[in-house]
Design goal:
The protein is of the alpha+beta class. It has a single domain (about 20-100, about 140-310, about 355-470), classed as Outer membrane efflux proteins (OEP). The protein is built from 12 helices and 4 strands. It is elongated and about 125 Å long.
Amino acid sequence: MYGFSIRFLTIAVLVAGCTVGPDYTPPDLAVPESWSAAAAETQRDASAELVAWWERFGDPRLTSLVERAVRGNLDLRQAQARVDDARARRGVSSAQLWPMADLGGLANTSSGAANPATGNRPTLFIAALDAFWEIDVFGGLRRSVEAADADVEVSIEARRAVILALTGSVAATYIELRGLQGRIDAVRGNLAAQRETGDLTRAQRDVGLASDLDVERARALVAATAAALPTLETARSAATYRIAVLLGEPPAALEGELSDAGAIPSAPAEVLIGVPADLLRRRPDLSRAERELAAATARIGEATADLYPRFTLTGSVGLRSEDVKDLLEGRYNFASIGPNVTWPVFAGGRILANIDAQNARQQERLANYQQTLLLALEDVETALVRYAREQIRRAALREAVDANREAAILARRLHANGLIEFLDVLDAERSLLESEDRLVASETAVSTSLVSLYVALGGGWERAESMVLATS
């Protein structure tokens, strides 16, 4: 019996190199050679620039907020927990490749005749070690581990995607906060000038140089300008609260720290973006889609292995006795070992249906990978166009602000000398306020569109991930 078991084990191990199902090969996706919306000189290696792109804005407060968010964000902690869960599940899958053993004991009263002397029925005591080993002849278990390995990598890429979204959200919200503070300052500056104009108009009315209509028009402009402040201040508070929550802190925790107005972080003079092929190794959503495809491919082999025989080796060693003393002294030992083969000859089509289902899921994952690439390319092209066009718009608005500022100064001077109507002064001041507000909004949009571009390129998770791993 033992000789047969050894021969069986030897043969099973020799043929265990067979692994059914398709071997995974990453698909070769078609990627454009260059970005259509970018200049050639910007399509150089951007790896160094993208590692910690938020530092490129030259704002220490922004850098600090991003780093604090990486250490404290609760979404990121959940993503890390999912990585730990996937790794533990991988351990469960790999454990199936090894022998398993159970240690147990039993005390069973016999149904036979009672002892004439004592009147008690005999009790059989058993202590045994049972072992079980499924020999992975056709690779079903190995395919399961292969799929679990890919699942771990999927969870890691998902964590990187959370990091990417987090750094982008912190940077964009901080820039929007600075933009809102700038717009509030612009409104307050114009409000002071308009009140000064109103005071001057009332003084002129008192000496007969202006009318009540002029005074009321000036008062209406002041009130309309002041009405813009509450909305802007509400948006500023909401941005402050959003940043705090992204950092894993209560909403009001940063009100004191971020209450003072600061400059809008400005974009660097030169922005390197690399080439489209870089996205395949940098964007976490692309890497995640590719790993999901790998996992789906491995599960085809796992399902296919159910078509073939399953070989197991079982054994048991132990002690049994009707006397506990004899059991403890190791008497009456027993042992057994033997192979076992099971083959699902008929399963009602379940196995073939499962293989078809896994093949369909693989095709779905492939299409998802291809679609994710197209969406990634779209993200970058759109971000490039938005960033370039917003810079052109900002330049035009700067010129408009300069012109409107000169026009407002000139209008006040001409009105003071009685050369133009007061309505012209109000129009000049209204145009100045509108153009200044649009300029600040455009400066904000330039920086936030650059953040969107960096995120679309998949930059920033490397540095941030190192901080996550250092604190986990």
